[in-house]
Amino acid sequence: MKSKVIIRCFLSLLLVGAAVGCIKNDIPYPRLLGRITAFEVAGQKGEAVIDSVARTVTVDMEDTAVLSRLRLLRFELSDNTTVQPELDSLIDLSVPKKFSLTTWPDQSYEWTVSATQTVERYIRVQNQVGDAVFNADEHYAVFYVTYEQPLDSVTITDMKLGPSNSEIEPEPSSVHDFTSVQRFTVRYRDVEELWTVAAYQKEAVLETGDADAWATVAYLYGTVPAGDGNVGFRFRTEGSDQWQDVSSSDVVLDGTSASALVTGLTPGTGYEYMIYSESGEGPVAAFSTEEAIQMPNMGFDAWNTTDGVVYPNADQGDNAWWDSGNTGARLGGKTPTSQETSFLATSGTGNTSAARLETVNAIIAMAGGNVFSGYFGSVQGLGAEVFFGRPFETRPLRLTGYYSYDPVAIDNVRPPQGVELPFDSNTIGGRMDRCHIFVYVTAWDGPYRVNTTEHRYLDVNDPDVIGYGELIDSTGTDGQYRQFSIDIKYRDHRKPTYCAVVAVASQYADFFTGGIGSLMYVDEFAFGYDGTPVWEEDAQE
Questions:
Q1: What is the pLDDT of residues 326-352, one digit of tens each?
Q2: 350 Ramachandran zone, left/alpha/beta (phi>0; psi -120 to 50)
Q3: Is the pTM higher than 0.85?
Q4: Distance in angstroms (rounded) separating the CA atoms of residues 535 and 523
Q5: What is the DSSP string of 400-423?
Q6: For the chain, how are helix, strand and coil distributed in percent, rounded to 5?
Q7: Residues near 424 by Cβ (< 8 Å), separated by ≥ 6?
Q8: Each residue of 162-180: pLDDT tens digit?
Q9: Alpha carbon distances (Å) from 100 to 73, 74, 85, 87, 90
Q10: Collapsing DSSP states into helix, strand and coil, what is residue 313?
Protein backbone atom coordinates (compact mmCIF):
# COMPACT_ATOMS: atom_id res chain seq x y z
CA MET A 1 0.00 0.00 0.00
CA LYS A 2 2.81 2.38 0.81
CA SER A 3 4.37 1.97 -2.63
CA LYS A 4 1.08 2.90 -4.30
CA VAL A 5 0.90 6.12 -2.30
CA ILE A 6 4.39 7.07 -3.44
CA ILE A 7 3.55 6.35 -7.05
CA ARG A 8 0.34 8.39 -6.95
CA CYS A 9 2.23 11.25 -5.31
CA PHE A 10 5.01 11.18 -7.98
CA LEU A 11 2.44 11.20 -10.77
CA SER A 12 0.67 14.19 -9.27
CA LEU A 13 3.95 16.08 -9.13
CA LEU A 14 4.52 15.45 -12.82
CA LEU A 15 1.03 16.66 -13.64
CA VAL A 16 0.94 19.88 -11.66
CA GLY A 17 4.65 20.65 -11.39
CA ALA A 18 4.20 21.44 -7.72
CA ALA A 19 7.01 21.45 -5.19
CA VAL A 20 4.76 20.00 -2.50
CA GLY A 21 3.43 16.47 -2.06
CA CYS A 22 3.62 13.33 -0.09
CA ILE A 23 7.41 12.95 -0.31
CA LYS A 24 10.31 15.36 -0.63
CA ASN A 25 12.42 14.83 -3.77
CA ASP A 26 16.07 15.36 -2.84
CA ILE A 27 17.42 13.83 -6.07
CA PRO A 28 19.10 16.61 -8.12
CA TYR A 29 18.56 17.02 -11.83
CA PRO A 30 21.25 15.28 -13.90
CA ARG A 31 24.03 17.71 -14.83
CA LEU A 32 24.29 17.88 -18.60
CA LEU A 33 27.47 19.71 -19.56
CA GLY A 34 27.18 22.12 -22.44
CA ARG A 35 30.26 21.77 -24.66
CA ILE A 36 31.55 22.96 -28.00
CA THR A 37 32.77 19.75 -29.63
CA ALA A 38 33.99 21.04 -33.01
CA PHE A 39 34.84 24.45 -34.43
CA GLU A 40 36.29 25.57 -37.73
CA VAL A 41 36.44 28.77 -39.77
CA ALA A 42 37.85 29.47 -43.21
CA GLY A 43 41.54 30.31 -43.09
CA GLN A 44 42.14 28.27 -39.95
CA LYS A 45 45.48 26.52 -39.50
CA GLY A 46 45.23 23.04 -38.02
CA GLU A 47 42.54 21.95 -35.61
CA ALA A 48 40.87 24.18 -33.04
CA VAL A 49 42.14 23.75 -29.48
CA ILE A 50 39.08 22.98 -27.36
CA ASP A 51 39.48 23.10 -23.58
CA SER A 52 36.33 21.74 -21.92
CA VAL A 53 37.61 22.60 -18.44
CA ALA A 54 38.41 26.27 -19.14
CA ARG A 55 35.51 26.35 -21.66
CA THR A 56 37.61 27.94 -24.37
CA VAL A 57 38.15 27.41 -28.07
CA THR A 58 41.30 28.79 -29.70
CA VAL A 59 42.08 28.81 -33.41
CA ASP A 60 45.29 29.84 -35.14
CA MET A 61 44.60 31.78 -38.32
CA GLU A 62 46.50 32.28 -41.54
CA ASP A 63 47.92 35.77 -41.85
CA THR A 64 45.62 36.46 -44.81
CA ALA A 65 42.44 35.92 -42.77
CA VAL A 66 40.39 38.99 -41.82
CA LEU A 67 39.50 38.24 -38.22
CA SER A 68 36.49 40.55 -38.16
CA ARG A 69 34.60 38.43 -40.71
CA LEU A 70 35.53 34.78 -40.80
CA ARG A 71 33.36 32.30 -42.66
CA LEU A 72 32.04 29.74 -40.20
CA LEU A 73 32.48 26.17 -41.42
CA ARG A 74 31.74 24.07 -38.32
CA PHE A 75 30.20 24.78 -34.93
CA GLU A 76 29.14 21.58 -33.23
CA LEU A 77 27.69 21.21 -29.74
CA SER A 78 27.12 18.40 -27.29
CA ASP A 79 23.70 16.72 -27.42
CA ASN A 80 20.64 18.69 -26.28
CA THR A 81 22.57 21.97 -26.19
CA THR A 82 21.54 25.36 -27.54
CA VAL A 83 23.71 28.42 -28.06
CA GLN A 84 23.30 32.18 -27.79
CA PRO A 85 23.86 34.42 -29.62
CA GLU A 86 22.52 32.63 -32.68
CA LEU A 87 25.09 31.69 -35.27
CA ASP A 88 25.54 33.42 -38.59
CA SER A 89 27.57 32.46 -41.65
CA LEU A 90 30.23 35.00 -40.57
CA ILE A 91 31.83 35.37 -37.17
CA ASP A 92 33.92 38.23 -35.75
CA LEU A 93 37.00 36.99 -33.86
CA SER A 94 38.96 40.24 -33.92
CA VAL A 95 38.26 40.13 -30.18
CA PRO A 96 37.34 37.02 -28.14
CA LYS A 97 33.69 36.13 -28.61
CA LYS A 98 31.56 34.74 -25.79
CA PHE A 99 28.78 32.19 -26.21
CA SER A 100 26.23 30.96 -23.70
CA LEU A 101 25.47 27.25 -23.98
CA THR A 102 22.28 25.98 -22.37
CA THR A 103 21.33 22.39 -21.55
CA TRP A 104 18.26 20.91 -19.86
CA PRO A 105 17.02 22.03 -17.42
CA ASP A 106 18.30 25.62 -17.85
CA GLN A 107 21.92 24.87 -17.05
CA SER A 108 24.12 27.54 -18.63
CA TYR A 109 27.81 27.50 -19.50
CA GLU A 110 29.81 30.43 -20.84
CA TRP A 111 32.39 29.61 -23.52
CA THR A 112 34.94 31.92 -25.11
CA VAL A 113 36.13 31.53 -28.70
CA SER A 114 39.28 33.42 -29.67
CA ALA A 115 41.74 33.58 -32.56
CA THR A 116 45.47 34.02 -32.74
CA GLN A 117 47.23 35.31 -35.84
CA THR A 118 50.91 35.76 -36.56
CA VAL A 119 51.90 38.07 -39.40
CA GLU A 120 55.53 37.84 -40.46
CA ARG A 121 56.96 41.32 -40.95
CA TYR A 122 60.39 42.38 -42.11
CA ILE A 123 62.34 45.28 -43.58
CA ARG A 124 65.59 44.50 -45.36
CA VAL A 125 67.96 47.21 -46.52
CA GLN A 126 71.54 47.49 -47.66
CA ASN A 127 74.08 47.98 -44.86
CA GLN A 128 71.50 46.97 -42.28
CA VAL A 129 72.40 46.31 -38.65
CA GLY A 130 70.24 43.67 -36.97
CA ASP A 131 66.55 43.07 -37.58
CA ALA A 132 63.86 45.71 -37.87
CA VAL A 133 61.61 46.29 -34.83
CA PHE A 134 57.81 46.43 -35.22
CA ASN A 135 54.93 47.78 -33.14
CA ALA A 136 51.93 46.15 -34.82
CA ASP A 137 49.39 47.93 -32.61
CA GLU A 138 50.73 51.39 -33.42
CA HIS A 139 51.72 50.48 -37.02
CA TYR A 140 55.25 51.69 -36.40
CA ALA A 141 58.55 50.15 -37.53
CA VAL A 142 62.24 50.99 -37.05
CA PHE A 143 65.28 49.64 -38.87
CA TYR A 144 68.98 50.36 -38.33
CA VAL A 145 71.87 50.95 -40.72
CA THR A 146 75.57 51.49 -40.23
CA TYR A 147 77.05 54.94 -39.64
CA GLU A 148 78.64 54.67 -43.07
CA GLN A 149 75.18 54.46 -44.68
CA PRO A 150 73.70 57.96 -45.31
CA LEU A 151 70.06 58.18 -44.26
CA ASP A 152 69.18 60.13 -47.40
CA SER A 153 70.16 57.27 -49.74
CA VAL A 154 68.87 54.07 -48.17
CA THR A 155 68.13 51.12 -50.48
CA ILE A 156 65.26 48.88 -49.40
CA THR A 157 65.66 45.39 -50.84
CA ASP A 158 62.54 43.80 -49.32
CA MET A 159 59.67 44.84 -47.08
CA LYS A 160 56.60 43.09 -45.66
CA LEU A 161 54.36 44.98 -43.26
CA GLY A 162 51.07 43.12 -43.66
CA PRO A 163 49.60 39.73 -44.57
CA SER A 164 50.91 37.64 -47.44
CA ASN A 165 50.03 39.14 -50.83
CA SER A 166 49.26 42.55 -49.30
CA GLU A 167 50.20 45.62 -51.33
CA ILE A 168 52.45 48.47 -50.15
CA GLU A 169 52.27 52.00 -51.44
CA PRO A 170 54.55 53.63 -52.42
CA GLU A 171 56.77 50.88 -53.78
CA PRO A 172 59.41 50.41 -51.02
CA SER A 173 62.35 50.23 -53.44
CA SER A 174 61.48 53.74 -54.68
CA VAL A 175 61.79 55.31 -51.21
CA HIS A 176 65.35 56.32 -50.23
CA ASP A 177 65.29 59.39 -47.98
CA PHE A 178 64.90 58.43 -44.32
CA THR A 179 66.27 61.64 -42.80
CA SER A 180 62.69 61.84 -41.52
CA VAL A 181 60.07 59.15 -41.12
CA GLN A 182 58.37 57.71 -44.18
CA ARG A 183 54.78 56.48 -44.36
CA PHE A 184 53.52 53.45 -46.25
CA THR A 185 49.95 52.37 -46.91
CA VAL A 186 49.38 48.62 -46.61
CA ARG A 187 46.29 47.19 -48.32
CA TYR A 188 44.85 43.71 -48.19
CA ARG A 189 41.37 43.13 -49.60
CA ASP A 190 39.45 46.14 -48.23
CA VAL A 191 41.62 46.53 -45.11
CA GLU A 192 43.97 49.53 -45.12
CA GLU A 193 46.70 50.42 -42.61
CA LEU A 194 49.01 53.43 -42.51
CA TRP A 195 52.51 52.48 -41.29
CA THR A 196 55.22 54.85 -40.11
CA VAL A 197 58.78 53.67 -40.77
CA ALA A 198 61.88 55.28 -39.27
CA ALA A 199 65.60 54.63 -39.78
CA TYR A 200 68.51 55.19 -37.42
CA GLN A 201 72.25 54.73 -37.67
CA LYS A 202 73.87 52.27 -35.32
CA GLU A 203 77.31 50.83 -34.81
CA ALA A 204 77.68 47.26 -36.04
CA VAL A 205 79.68 45.12 -33.64
CA LEU A 206 81.26 41.70 -34.01
CA GLU A 207 78.46 39.40 -32.88
CA THR A 208 77.79 35.68 -33.34
CA GLY A 209 74.14 35.08 -34.27
CA ASP A 210 71.75 32.18 -33.77
CA ALA A 211 72.40 29.15 -35.96
CA ASP A 212 69.72 27.33 -37.95
CA ALA A 213 70.76 23.70 -37.48
CA TRP A 214 69.30 20.84 -39.56
CA ALA A 215 70.37 17.19 -39.27
CA THR A 216 73.63 17.34 -41.24
CA VAL A 217 73.89 21.05 -42.13
CA ALA A 218 73.72 24.34 -40.28
CA TYR A 219 73.28 27.94 -41.39
CA LEU A 220 75.56 30.21 -39.33
CA TYR A 221 74.90 33.93 -38.89
CA GLY A 222 76.65 36.96 -37.43
CA THR A 223 77.40 40.66 -37.82
CA VAL A 224 80.71 42.49 -38.25
CA PRO A 225 81.76 46.15 -38.03
CA ALA A 226 81.30 48.06 -41.28
CA GLY A 227 84.26 47.72 -43.61
CA ASP A 228 85.77 44.77 -41.72
CA GLY A 229 87.66 42.27 -43.80
CA ASN A 230 88.78 38.67 -43.33
CA VAL A 231 85.29 37.65 -42.22
CA GLY A 232 84.71 34.00 -41.47
CA PHE A 233 83.31 31.37 -39.13
CA ARG A 234 84.84 28.50 -37.21
CA PHE A 235 83.09 25.64 -35.43
CA ARG A 236 83.80 22.54 -33.35
CA THR A 237 82.02 19.63 -31.77
CA GLU A 238 80.87 20.46 -28.28
CA GLY A 239 83.59 19.47 -25.79
CA SER A 240 86.36 19.50 -28.40
CA ASP A 241 89.29 21.92 -28.33
CA GLN A 242 89.88 21.72 -32.09
CA TRP A 243 88.29 24.49 -34.16
CA GLN A 244 87.57 24.05 -37.87
CA ASP A 245 87.38 27.06 -40.18
CA VAL A 246 84.54 27.31 -42.68
CA SER A 247 85.83 27.67 -46.23
CA SER A 248 85.97 31.34 -47.22
CA SER A 249 84.08 30.47 -50.42
CA ASP A 250 81.09 29.43 -48.29
CA VAL A 251 80.92 32.75 -46.39
CA VAL A 252 78.52 35.40 -47.67
CA LEU A 253 78.93 39.01 -46.53
CA ASP A 254 76.05 41.44 -47.13
CA GLY A 255 76.98 44.81 -45.67
CA THR A 256 77.58 44.02 -42.02
CA SER A 257 75.66 40.72 -42.05
CA ALA A 258 77.56 37.49 -42.57
CA SER A 259 76.32 33.95 -43.11
CA ALA A 260 77.68 30.54 -44.04
CA LEU A 261 76.41 27.04 -44.71
CA VAL A 262 78.24 24.20 -42.97
CA THR A 263 77.70 20.65 -44.28
CA GLY A 264 78.74 17.16 -43.21
CA LEU A 265 77.61 17.52 -39.59
CA THR A 266 76.55 14.62 -37.40
CA PRO A 267 72.82 14.36 -36.57
CA GLY A 268 71.80 14.79 -32.95
CA THR A 269 75.12 16.40 -31.96
CA GLY A 270 76.03 19.56 -30.06
CA TYR A 271 78.35 22.12 -31.67
CA GLU A 272 79.90 25.49 -30.87
CA TYR A 273 80.79 28.25 -33.32
CA MET A 274 81.91 31.85 -33.59
CA ILE A 275 82.28 34.58 -36.15
CA TYR A 276 85.62 36.33 -36.64
CA SER A 277 87.04 39.21 -38.67
CA GLU A 278 90.07 41.45 -38.68
CA SER A 279 88.57 43.06 -35.57
CA GLY A 280 88.90 39.83 -33.59
CA GLU A 281 86.61 36.98 -32.56
CA GLY A 282 82.93 37.12 -31.66
CA PRO A 283 81.42 35.33 -28.67
CA VAL A 284 80.97 31.55 -28.82
CA ALA A 285 77.42 30.31 -29.52
CA ALA A 286 76.05 26.78 -29.36
CA PHE A 287 73.63 24.72 -31.43
CA SER A 288 72.50 21.10 -31.75
CA THR A 289 71.74 19.34 -35.00
CA GLU A 290 68.39 17.63 -35.52
CA GLU A 291 68.04 13.87 -35.33
CA ALA A 292 67.96 12.02 -38.68
CA ILE A 293 64.60 10.42 -37.95
CA GLN A 294 62.64 7.94 -40.07
CA MET A 295 58.88 7.45 -39.84
CA PRO A 296 57.74 4.12 -38.39
CA ASN A 297 57.07 1.34 -40.92
CA MET A 298 58.31 3.28 -43.96
CA GLY A 299 59.11 -0.08 -45.56
CA PHE A 300 55.45 -1.16 -45.24
CA ASP A 301 56.43 -4.47 -43.65
CA ALA A 302 54.01 -4.37 -40.70
CA TRP A 303 50.25 -4.84 -41.27
CA ASN A 304 47.20 -5.65 -39.18
CA THR A 305 43.46 -6.16 -39.63
CA THR A 306 41.23 -4.50 -37.05
CA ASP A 307 37.41 -4.68 -37.20
CA GLY A 308 37.67 -5.98 -40.74
CA VAL A 309 39.82 -3.09 -42.00
CA VAL A 310 43.38 -3.61 -43.27
CA TYR A 311 45.94 -1.14 -41.91
CA PRO A 312 49.67 -0.64 -42.78
CA ASN A 313 50.71 -0.69 -39.09
CA ALA A 314 51.82 -3.31 -36.59
CA ASP A 315 48.68 -2.49 -34.58
CA GLN A 316 46.13 0.30 -34.20
CA GLY A 317 47.40 1.37 -30.79
CA ASP A 318 50.70 3.15 -30.20
CA ASN A 319 52.04 1.95 -33.58
CA ALA A 320 49.24 3.53 -35.66
CA TRP A 321 51.10 5.92 -37.98
CA TRP A 322 49.81 5.12 -41.47
CA ASP A 323 46.30 4.79 -42.84
CA SER A 324 44.44 4.50 -46.14
CA GLY A 325 40.95 4.88 -47.55
CA ASN A 326 40.06 1.28 -46.72
CA THR A 327 37.63 2.33 -43.97
CA GLY A 328 35.51 4.26 -46.47
CA ALA A 329 35.83 1.75 -49.29
CA ARG A 330 34.69 -1.05 -46.98
CA LEU A 331 31.11 0.23 -47.42
CA GLY A 332 31.42 -0.87 -51.04
CA GLY A 333 32.99 -4.18 -50.08
CA LYS A 334 36.43 -3.20 -51.38
CA THR A 335 39.97 -3.07 -49.98
CA PRO A 336 41.94 -0.79 -52.34
CA THR A 337 45.07 -0.81 -50.13
CA SER A 338 46.49 -4.18 -49.12
CA GLN A 339 49.62 -6.03 -48.07
CA GLU A 340 51.78 -7.47 -50.85
CA THR A 341 54.21 -10.26 -49.90
CA SER A 342 55.36 -11.73 -53.21
CA PHE A 343 56.14 -8.70 -55.42
CA LEU A 344 58.79 -6.74 -53.50
CA ALA A 345 61.27 -4.05 -54.51
CA THR A 346 64.30 -5.65 -52.88
CA SER A 347 65.21 -8.97 -51.34
CA GLY A 348 67.08 -7.38 -48.48
CA THR A 349 66.80 -8.58 -44.92
CA GLY A 350 63.65 -7.32 -43.28
CA ASN A 351 61.80 -6.44 -46.48
CA THR A 352 58.87 -8.81 -46.08
CA SER A 353 56.07 -6.88 -47.75
CA ALA A 354 55.03 -3.83 -49.75
CA ALA A 355 51.83 -1.83 -50.15
CA ARG A 356 49.50 -2.65 -53.04
CA LEU A 357 47.33 0.30 -54.13
CA GLU A 358 44.54 -0.21 -56.66
CA THR A 359 41.90 2.17 -57.95
CA VAL A 360 38.56 0.40 -57.57
CA ASN A 361 34.85 0.99 -58.02
CA ALA A 362 33.51 0.89 -54.47
CA ILE A 363 29.87 1.11 -55.67
CA ILE A 364 29.22 4.28 -53.63
CA ALA A 365 32.11 6.08 -55.32
CA MET A 366 35.47 5.46 -56.95
CA ALA A 367 38.29 4.84 -54.47
CA GLY A 368 41.94 5.31 -55.34
CA GLY A 369 44.26 2.93 -53.51
CA ASN A 370 46.39 5.04 -51.21
CA VAL A 371 48.59 5.07 -48.14
CA PHE A 372 49.38 8.15 -46.07
CA SER A 373 50.82 9.25 -42.74
CA GLY A 374 47.78 10.33 -40.75
CA TYR A 375 44.39 8.79 -40.08
CA PHE A 376 41.01 8.31 -41.71
CA GLY A 377 38.26 10.24 -39.94
CA SER A 378 34.86 9.20 -41.24
CA VAL A 379 32.70 8.77 -44.31
CA GLN A 380 30.96 12.05 -45.18
CA GLY A 381 28.17 11.42 -47.71
CA LEU A 382 29.90 10.32 -50.88
CA GLY A 383 33.18 11.73 -49.61
CA ALA A 384 35.32 11.41 -46.52
CA GLU A 385 37.00 13.30 -43.73
CA VAL A 386 40.71 12.53 -43.50
CA PHE A 387 43.48 13.90 -41.28
CA PHE A 388 46.92 14.14 -42.91
CA GLY A 389 50.26 14.33 -41.13
CA ARG A 390 51.98 12.99 -38.04
CA PRO A 391 54.18 14.89 -35.56
CA PHE A 392 57.66 15.27 -37.04
CA GLU A 393 60.18 17.88 -35.91
CA THR A 394 63.14 17.36 -38.21
CA ARG A 395 63.84 18.42 -41.80
CA PRO A 396 64.72 15.64 -44.25
CA LEU A 397 66.22 16.64 -47.58
CA ARG A 398 64.59 13.98 -49.74
CA LEU A 399 62.18 11.06 -49.83
CA THR A 400 63.48 7.88 -51.46
CA GLY A 401 61.97 4.50 -52.19
CA TYR A 402 60.58 2.23 -54.90
CA TYR A 403 57.34 2.16 -56.83
CA SER A 404 55.75 0.12 -59.59
CA TYR A 405 52.87 1.50 -61.62
CA ASP A 406 50.54 0.07 -64.25
CA PRO A 407 48.06 2.82 -65.25
CA VAL A 408 44.89 2.46 -67.27
CA ALA A 409 42.94 5.11 -69.14
CA ILE A 410 40.77 7.38 -67.00
CA ASP A 411 37.23 6.03 -67.28
CA ASN A 412 35.66 7.52 -64.17
CA VAL A 413 35.14 11.29 -64.27
CA ARG A 414 32.70 12.35 -61.56
CA PRO A 415 34.14 15.51 -59.99
CA PRO A 416 32.01 17.29 -57.38
CA GLN A 417 30.02 20.32 -58.40
CA GLY A 418 30.98 23.82 -57.32
CA VAL A 419 34.68 23.22 -56.79
CA GLU A 420 37.67 24.48 -58.75
CA LEU A 421 39.29 21.47 -60.42
CA PRO A 422 43.01 21.05 -61.19
CA PHE A 423 42.07 19.53 -64.57
CA ASP A 424 39.59 19.98 -67.41
CA SER A 425 36.78 17.54 -66.68
CA ASN A 426 35.67 17.69 -70.33
CA THR A 427 38.95 16.40 -71.74
CA ILE A 428 40.53 14.28 -69.01
CA GLY A 429 38.48 11.17 -69.82
CA GLY A 430 40.50 8.70 -71.90
CA ARG A 431 43.87 10.09 -70.83
CA MET A 432 46.20 7.76 -68.96
CA ASP A 433 45.83 7.79 -65.20
CA ARG A 434 48.67 9.18 -63.08
CA CYS A 435 50.08 7.98 -59.79
CA HIS A 436 51.23 10.50 -57.22
CA ILE A 437 53.79 10.32 -54.41
CA PHE A 438 54.33 13.47 -52.37
CA VAL A 439 55.70 14.73 -49.08
CA TYR A 440 54.82 17.87 -47.10
CA VAL A 441 57.02 19.12 -44.26
CA THR A 442 54.85 21.57 -42.35
CA ALA A 443 54.40 23.92 -39.43
CA TRP A 444 50.81 22.77 -38.84
CA ASP A 445 49.42 22.97 -35.31
CA GLY A 446 47.84 19.53 -35.77
CA PRO A 447 46.87 17.05 -38.48
CA TYR A 448 45.50 18.76 -41.58
CA ARG A 449 41.78 18.09 -41.95
CA VAL A 450 40.57 17.26 -45.46
CA ASN A 451 36.86 16.88 -46.17
CA THR A 452 35.97 16.10 -49.78
CA THR A 453 32.26 16.71 -49.14
CA GLU A 454 33.07 20.26 -48.01
CA HIS A 455 35.57 20.63 -50.88
CA ARG A 456 38.40 21.06 -48.41
CA TYR A 457 41.62 19.57 -49.83
CA LEU A 458 45.34 19.55 -49.20
CA ASP A 459 46.91 22.70 -50.61
CA VAL A 460 50.59 22.90 -51.46
CA ASN A 461 50.26 26.70 -51.25
CA ASP A 462 49.21 26.55 -47.61
CA PRO A 463 51.54 29.07 -45.90
CA ASP A 464 52.41 26.46 -43.27
CA VAL A 465 53.80 24.02 -45.85
CA ILE A 466 57.46 24.87 -45.41
CA GLY A 467 58.84 22.11 -47.65
CA TYR A 468 57.39 19.82 -50.32
CA GLY A 469 58.29 17.38 -53.06
CA GLU A 470 56.38 15.15 -55.46
CA LEU A 471 56.54 12.48 -58.14
CA ILE A 472 53.87 12.07 -60.83
CA ASP A 473 53.93 9.26 -63.41
CA SER A 474 51.47 8.48 -66.21
CA THR A 475 53.66 6.16 -68.30
CA GLY A 476 54.14 3.34 -65.83
CA THR A 477 57.15 1.17 -65.03
CA ASP A 478 56.58 -1.89 -67.30
CA GLY A 479 55.71 -4.16 -64.42
CA GLN A 480 58.97 -3.50 -62.58
CA TYR A 481 59.92 -1.49 -59.54
CA ARG A 482 61.61 1.84 -60.17
CA GLN A 483 63.78 3.55 -57.57
CA PHE A 484 62.99 7.20 -56.93
CA SER A 485 64.44 10.15 -55.04
CA ILE A 486 62.26 13.20 -54.45
CA ASP A 487 64.02 16.39 -53.37
CA ILE A 488 62.10 18.32 -50.72
CA LYS A 489 62.08 21.97 -51.74
CA TYR A 490 62.01 24.31 -48.75
CA ARG A 491 60.45 27.76 -48.57
CA ASP A 492 61.70 29.11 -45.24
CA HIS A 493 63.76 28.24 -42.17
CA ARG A 494 60.95 27.45 -39.73
CA LYS A 495 61.20 24.34 -37.59
CA PRO A 496 58.64 21.72 -38.67
CA THR A 497 55.95 20.22 -36.48
CA TYR A 498 54.24 17.73 -38.82
CA CYS A 499 55.04 15.72 -41.92
CA ALA A 500 52.69 14.07 -44.42
CA VAL A 501 53.82 11.37 -46.86
CA VAL A 502 51.21 10.19 -49.38
CA ALA A 503 51.10 7.68 -52.24
CA VAL A 504 47.99 7.20 -54.40
CA ALA A 505 47.31 5.14 -57.52
CA SER A 506 45.13 7.88 -59.09
CA GLN A 507 46.27 11.46 -58.63
CA TYR A 508 42.75 12.89 -58.82
CA ALA A 509 41.02 10.27 -56.70
CA ASP A 510 39.92 13.03 -54.29
CA PHE A 511 37.80 14.34 -57.16
CA PHE A 512 36.42 10.87 -57.98
CA THR A 513 38.40 10.87 -61.21
CA GLY A 514 40.72 8.07 -62.32
CA GLY A 515 41.09 4.78 -64.11
CA ILE A 516 39.42 1.77 -62.53
CA GLY A 517 42.18 -0.83 -62.32
CA SER A 518 45.22 1.48 -62.13
CA LEU A 519 47.65 -0.48 -59.96
CA MET A 520 50.56 0.80 -57.90
CA TYR A 521 53.01 -0.81 -55.49
CA VAL A 522 55.23 1.15 -53.07
CA ASP A 523 58.06 -0.23 -50.98
CA GLU A 524 61.04 0.76 -48.85
CA PHE A 525 60.37 4.46 -48.34
CA ALA A 526 63.05 6.40 -46.43
CA PHE A 527 64.14 9.95 -45.68
CA GLY A 528 67.57 11.16 -46.80
CA TYR A 529 69.52 13.75 -44.83
CA ASP A 530 72.92 14.03 -46.51
CA GLY A 531 73.73 16.90 -48.85
CA THR A 532 72.49 20.48 -48.90
CA PRO A 533 68.92 21.81 -48.74
CA VAL A 534 67.08 22.60 -51.97
CA TRP A 535 65.21 25.92 -51.90
CA GLU A 536 62.03 26.46 -53.89
CA GLU A 537 63.20 29.80 -55.28
CA ASP A 538 66.40 28.23 -56.58
CA ALA A 539 64.60 25.20 -58.06
CA GLN A 540 62.28 27.49 -60.04
CA GLU A 541 65.09 29.42 -61.68
A1: 988 776 678 899 999 999 999 877 899
A2: left
A3: no
A4: 27
A5: EEEEEEE--B--EE-PPTTS--SS
A6: 5, 45, 50
A7: none
A8: 988 789 999 999 999 999 9
A9: 19, 17, 7, 12, 18
A10: coil
